[in-house]
Structure formats: C-alpha cells, structure tokens
Amino acid sequence: MTHDPSDTFVHVRGASEHNLRDVDVDIPRDAMVAFTGVSGSGKSSLAFGTLYAEAQRRYFESVAPYARRLLQQVGAPHVQEITGLPPAVALQQRRGAPSSRSTVGTITTLSNLLRMLYSRAGTYPSGAAHLAAEAFSPNTAAGACLRCHGLGVVHDVAEDLLVPDPSLSIREGAIAAWPGAWQGANLRSIVSGLDIDIEKPWGRLRKKDRDWLLYTDEQPSVLIKPQRDRVDHGYYGKFWSARKHVMHVLADSTSERMRERALRFVRSVPCPECLGSGLRPEALAVTVAGWSIAEINAMSFAEVVAVLRPVAELPQETNEVAVRICADLVARIEVLLDLGLGYLSLGRSSTTLSPGEAQRLRIATQLRSGLFGVVYVLDEPSAGLHPADAEPLLDVLARLKASGNTLFVVEHDMDVVRRADWVIDIGPDAGEGGGRVLYSGPVAGLEAIEESATSRYLFGRAEPLDHTPRAPHGHLHLRGVSRHNLTDVSVDIPLCVLTAVTGVSGSGKSTLVTQVLAELVRCHLGLAPEDPDQADLEVDVEDASGLESFDRLVLVDQRPIGRTPRSNLATYTGMFDAVRKLYAATDEAKARGYGAGRFSFNVAEGRCETCQGEGFVAVELLFLPGTYAACPTCHGSRYNAETLEVTYEGKTVADVLSMTVDDAARFLADVPAASRSLETLREVGLGYLRLGQPATELSGGEAQRIKLATELQRARRGHALYLLDEPTAGLHPADIALLLRQLHLLVDAGNTVVLVEHDLDTIATADWVIDLGPGGGDAGGRVVAAGTPTDVASAAGSATAPYLARRLA
Ligand code: ADP
Ligand code: ADP
Ligand code: ZN
Ligand code: ZN
Questions:
Q1: Where are the domains positioned within the chain?
Q2: Which interval of the chain is the signal sequence (predicted)?
Q3: What ipTM goes with this model?
C-alpha cells in the first residue's frame, strides 16, 4: 500500500499486539477519535501499544539509524502495516514517577520564561551585577542555595521525635533515637560516666543536659568501668548525641532499614537560609513589579496573572523585554486558568499533583508548542475531572485539533465520547474476549451495534442502577478542620452508608478524605502514618467525635501495588503462596527436594540466572530512554530449566503466572486458598489480567481494583471505614456498575464507605453527598451542600448540582 497524500486516513492492517485479533482499521486524521470499550478490551493496545509505539519506532529510526539493531531486539509492535501515520506525542497519565525536583513550573516550562524575565528585566539592588537565568533556578550549581543545595528543605531532628515519652528515664530508653542493643547500653554507660542521672525521668533532667545529650557535636571519650561480675578491664567509649547519631546514619549508613528508622526522628523544615525557595540571596534580591521570583513561585496562577498583567500592558518603550516576556507568560497562564488550574502555583512539587492536574498541565504546554500535523495520543483526559472542569479541557483539545493536529483519545466518559468526530469501539469483552473492532465511524452509527457495551451506555439502553438511599447509623462529627484550602470546616460524615465527596478540581476533596479523615482514623486506631513525611503534620481538627465507631481503616487509592516488576497480581494478593505450596507438594518436587521457595522467581535456586528472575533484560540505547527486551535465556519465563521440569496438571509454575485470572480460576478451582482470591478479582472485573503481569504495567484503576479485591476477600462483617479516591477513574460504565455493586455490598455488611468521586452515575447512587467548593484553591474549601443526591441536585451555588440534576432527571 503506497501512501496517497489526498488520503486523510491512517490505515492499520493486521494489528495483533496483546489481545488484538488481527485488527484492520482506518482512522481519520485531523479529527478527534475516541477509542472506547470495557477495561481490558484492547483500547490502549491499539492506541498506545500499536499506533503510538509505531510512530515512536519510526522516529527513533529516523534520528538514530544505528539504533535499528537494538530496536529489533526490543521488538516493534505486532502489526503488519501502518500507512499515513504522522509523528505522535503521548500524553499519558499513568507511567513514570515524577521526580521530586520537578514542579508545576518545570512541567509547563513556564519557569524558564520567568527566569529569563528576572535575569533580563528584573530590578537589581544598586551596584549588583546582572545574573544569568540559571542563577534563578535552584536546580543549577549557579543558583542553588548553599545550605540546602536547592532543595528548599533541610532535615533536622526534633526533641519530641527523639524522645517520644519524656516520663521515661535514660535507662528506660527515653532517647528513642539512640541505637538499641549493645551500642545503646554503651551510650547509657557513657552518660552515667558523665554524671548525668540515667535513672531520672527525662522531663526532670536539666534543660542544659537534655540539649547537650540531644544536640551536641562534642564526642568525649569516657572510660567505662568494668561491671562487677565481669573480668574485663574497662574501655574508652565515644559519646554520640542523638542528632549526631541520626545524621551519621542518614549520611553514611548503607542499611535501608537503619536509614528508615533514622528518618522517624527527623522532620523536614523549610531551609532557614533561603526560606524554602532553594535560591541564593543574590537571586532573591532581584524583583519584578516589587516581587522576588520566590514570591511569584509561591503565588497561585490567578495571583501571578494579576501581578504580571500590568507589566505586560505597559507601553513597549518602557521596557520592551519585560513587556514581551510578561505578555507571553500571561497568555500562557491564562490557558491554565481556563483549564480550572488557577489555584496551582509554579513552585508546587509535581509529586503532589493529581494525575488529572499533571495531564492538563502537559496538554496546555503542548498547545503552546506550535506543533502541527502531529497525533496526540491521550489516556482518559477527563479522568479525575469534575464535569465542570471537563468542558474547558475539551475546548483546549478542540484548539489543538484546530491548529492542524489529530487526537486519539482513550476514553470512558460518555459525555466526552459524544463530542468526538469518530469512535473506534473495541470489544466485546476484556482480554481474550475482546480485541476486535466492533465499530469504526461517526458516533451516531454506534447505536446500531448490539454487542457493544459502549453503545448501551452511550444511547441510554443500559439498565439504570436503582438505589434508595440508606439511613445512616449515627455520624462522625468533625469540627474546625483546617488544612490546605480547608479553613475551619465542619462536616458530618454519616456512618454505615456510602458517601460521595464531590466538587471541582482543587476544591479540597482529597485533602478532606485521603488526608484529614484518613489521618484521624489512623491516629485513633494507633496506626503509623503511611507517609513518613506526614508523620509530624498536626491533624488540624478542633474536635472529632464518632471515631470510635471504626475498628479498621482501609485506604484504597490508585497508587501502584508495587514499584518493581517483581511484584504482580499474584504476589500482591498472596495467592502466589498457595500456588508455590501446590508445586512443592507435587511428587516430582518432593523427589527432588524442592520446597515452596524454589518456585519463587525472587529466590536464587529456582530463578533464571541471566535475568535474576525478572524475565527481561535492560537494553541501553545511547541518547535514548532505556528499554527492555525478553530475557534470552528463559524467554521471559523467569525460572531456570530445572524448576520448569516440575508440573502440576501439565502446567509449569511459569505457565500459571501467564494465565489470566479467568483461566487460573478454572485451573485452580480445587485450591481454596487461591480460588477465593481469584473469584473476588473476577467480581471486580479483572478476570482478564494475567497473574504475572508486573505491577508496573498495571494502570492506576487496575491497581485500585486489585487492592479492593484483596480487601473484599478478607472482608467480614465489620466496622471498617473504606476511603476510596476516585475508584471509577479509568473504568468503562459497564465496569463501574460491577464495582458499585461490590462497594454497596461492603456497606450492606455494616461498613462505611467514603468516595472522592466525579462520576455522576456513581454519585447518583450514593446514600449521601458532600459537595465541596464552590471553586478550586482559595475559591473552594467549604461545604457547599450536603444531603441525598436529590437534595444536592437542587442546592444553590453548587457546581455539581446542575450536572447531577440532569443525571437524575
Ligand atoms: P484497555 O486499554 O482497553 O483497558 P489494554 O489494551 O490495556 O485494554 O489491554 C488489553 C489486553 O492486553 C488485556 O488483556 C491486558 O491484560 C493485555 N495487556 C495489556 N498490557 C500488556 C502487556 N504489557 N503485556 C501483555 N499483555 C498486556
Ligand atoms: P481536590 O481533591 O478537590 O482536587 P485537593 O484537596 O487536592 O483538591 O486540593 C485542595 C487545595 O489544596 C488546592 O488549592 C491545592 O492546590 C491545595 N493542595 C493540595 N495538596 C497540596 C500540597 N501537597 N501542598 C500544597 N497545597 C496543596
Ligand atoms: Zn536553602
Ligand atoms: Zn531469564
């Protein structure tokens, strides 16, 4: 097939990546194309795994012909031919952990522009030399604060962490930060040699002594006298203050466990030198419109525009450079305001952004890149967005298209699908049961496709989820909650029902649910905080009652179930233990003396030596991101040949790992410890996943459902609080229906469920809705409405109400 320039289609022939079944499809360019289908049907395999991967491969070949051999090793997508494919840019939500040094300013590249503004057009103190743009970046040698190396924070110990219980004496272990065992006993002997009373409660020691013990840099050597019943002659021991010990461990210890322990005693505080900006004093002294670059970085975008717009509107002659750069900054930031991100600041660390926020920032950045003739491949751009935030996003996508680009959008939100020019529906089911193109054409034509789940939801043929709101059994009362943009908020959370917390992006939902509420209950249950950085944050609540109603807290978020390819579905759920025992119990294994450990790919004896049980090896491409290829020895099986000689019912342990949950449920039906897990995984719609699929390949939505299934499998009647952050993100409406059924079962069993949620079908079937807002950031943080879905649908001033009302009508 040669390419005819008047042909405006991308032609795909014989695509068979993952579960795709020899797909032939023609996709229009210069259009917005939605890829739809139930989760696991093959949408991403076509959009990302085939189209984007092929564009990427061609790009690599064109820029780096030498890479060809390596690329062959990595493997091209399984497709016979693609013609008419333009270069592609992927804007994916899932993969790639953001680095803690990247910020909103670096993702959007706005920081570069701002630095140029300060360097070229800032107001310098008289006599100061002009600084290069790098001097305004904490990430360069020229700019970084000398005290904190540009991090903006320094770690320091704090007395309340070093000595959690001041009623203990030193002998009783008051200084928790000191090492245990012999070293600790040694330090205590040294202290008593220094004439400090080690029997007195810590709190009754003199302040001078306490400070010295905790903070001094002195390290006197003290003769330790032999104990009465010992025959040695004593020795000299060196003193370490608690701070010196902790800092020494953090700086020098190679033991991850020791370092982790030491981190419990430090708190990160803003660097006193640069006040958290990471910059040197010379840079901080330069101003624009009276503000330093650090102050601009800390402002919300809405405030930045207010500060810079007057400069942009000055007559050109006054300061041409300042006017030009400010005008550019204002224009670019206005796009972010349009996208509902006006509450973010340039200095905000990218690790604290939600995936939806990060993706919108990248989309806005692309809009300004001036590229045309490009295919943008997007992963659920509407995920994590309130319907009110989704509309401006769609406008920006329309602008990207209008400037001559093509949009391939993997999407579950039917309101977004309706706005597409073309829809490619894949299915009918997930995994083996999917992988066919059910329909490719303008949206209206999908109505006639009987076997399409998407068609049922798009054209209103799906059974509506009927629900009569339950009555709560009491309430959890929170009074005076303050954190981020929540200020002195009071809210009642009903018990033993399903509550949806709603509101536009930045209104405070996650702050309330996954932070404040989770921390309060965790603290009440005496559990350690999940995130050690949050360990010392005060729980900013004046009064909380009703916490005693819970005996368990389950936080089901979208964080990956593991950060290495060594964790997978089977290991995470614990089901793999049962499988390994099963193999160890076979006659062959017994005859060879193989225990259960032999069947773990993490244990030396059973795993493939070449790849150390990873199943693949890293291929380094010069100048290009590294990538992976199947291990040449075990071909991805992860095990050595001897281990694979042991079979159960004709299958090796590697065969089991490559089974889908559905297949494994059949194969392991007689193994109760495994089949219970497998059944719950099927119930949340994950029957299509393979047991050995590495954790790193799973989407956030899949990870979340795996966690939920793992919970359900051990769920008993109880008084647990389940907190879920957007459980429906990444799910087709048909999968949402499955998930909701499970969540309601949890409530029927006596538990309380609280969801942060945007999906209107889900909100409509909640027992109670708490709507935060009305806007994001400072314009939000209040409870706008609370009540049954019907109550909230008619609430005045709620951004959710009009959408909910339409859904309930
Ligand atoms: P969707 O995007 O529709 O949710 P995917 O294209 O991600 O579906 O997945 C389609 C099928 O391919 C599923 O059965 C999934 O388990 C499988 N799959 C996805 N990624 C991989 C991979 N990296 N290796 C093997 N199989 C995969
Ligand atoms: P939602 O979940 O409704 O999108 P969030 O609770 O994430 O809203 O955010 C509420 C407000 O708190 C926003 O103004 C946001 O910028 C701010 N915020 C959230 N997380 C952080 C953080 N880690 N550091 C500083 N501000 C934050
Ligand atoms: Zn500093
Ligand atoms: Zn191997």
A1: 9-96+353-458, 104-152+272-338, 155-270, 475-560+701-808, 572-697
A2: none
A3: 0.94
State residue 65's pLDDT score.
62
Centre of ligand 4 from the C-alpha of residue 630, in Å: 8
Torsion sign over Cα 500, 502, 505, 510 = negative
For 785, list phi and psi in degrees, rounded to 5: -155, 150
What is the CATH number assigned to the segment(s) 104-152+272-338?
1.20.1580.10
Element housing 500 (H / E): strand 498-502
What is the reported pLDDT for 538?
Answer: 56
Quote the tokens at residue 759: 């999906």
Q: How far is the CA of 276 from the centre of ligand 3 (A)?
A: 6
pLDDT for 46 equals: 96
Q: What confidence score (pLDDT) does residue 389 get? A: 87
| Closest CA to ligand 2's atom 12 | 484
pTM of the full structure: 0.81
- Which string of b and e fits 531-560 if b means at least 16 CB within 10 Å? eeeeeeeebbbeebebbebbebbbbbbbeb
489, 482 contact by CB (below 8 A): yes
pLDDT at 745: 87
The whole-number pLDDT of residue 23 equals 97
Task: Give dist(CA 304, CA 302) in Å, integer.
Answer: 6
pLDDT at 24: 98
Mutate to test the pocket of ligand 2, among 301, 344, 485, 557 (most ligand atoms within 8 A of CB): 485
pLDDT at 566: 82
Closest Cα to atom 1 of ligand 1: 40
Q: Could you give the 3-state DSSP secondary structure of residue 82? A: strand
Considering every ligand atom shown, identify the ligand nearest to the alpha carbon of residue 511 and give its number: 2
| Model pLDDT, residue 641 | 95
> Which residues form ligand 1's pocket by a CB distance below 6 Å?
18-19, 37, 39-45, 410, 430-431, 688-690, 697
Written as six digits, the tokens of 631 are 């291990």
Residues of the chain with pLDDT below 70 are: 1-3, 63-75, 93-100, 181, 226-234, 528-539, 618-628, 715-717
User: Which pLDDT belongs to residue 716?
Assistant: 65
CATH of the domain spanning 475-560+701-808: 3.40.50.300
User: Which residues contact ligand 2 via a Cβ below 6 A?
Assistant: 343-344, 352, 484-485, 503, 505-511, 776-777
CATH number of 155-270: 1.10.8.280
485 CA distance to ligand 2 middle (Å): 7
Going by C-alpha positions, the residue among 529, 450, 605, 617 that lies closest to residue 70 is: 617
| Dist. CA 270 → ligand 3 center (Å) | 8
Residue ranges of E strands in 318-386: 375-379
Q: Select from 3.30.429.10, 3.40.47.10, 1.20.1580.10, 1.10.730.10 the CATH code of 572-697.
A: 1.20.1580.10
For residue 607, the ligand closest to its alpha carbon is 4
**Fold match between domain 104-152+272-338 and domain 155-270:** no
Q: Ligand 1 mean position to 672 CA, how many Å?
A: 27
CATH label, 9-96+353-458, candidates 3.40.50.300, 3.30.470.20, 3.40.640.10, 3.30.70.3550: 3.40.50.300
pLDDT at 278: 92
539-558 pLDDT, tens digit each: 688 888 999 999 999 888 77
**Closest-approaching ligand to the CA atom of 301:** 2
Q: Which of 325, 389, 326, 387 is nearest to 357 (CA)?
A: 389
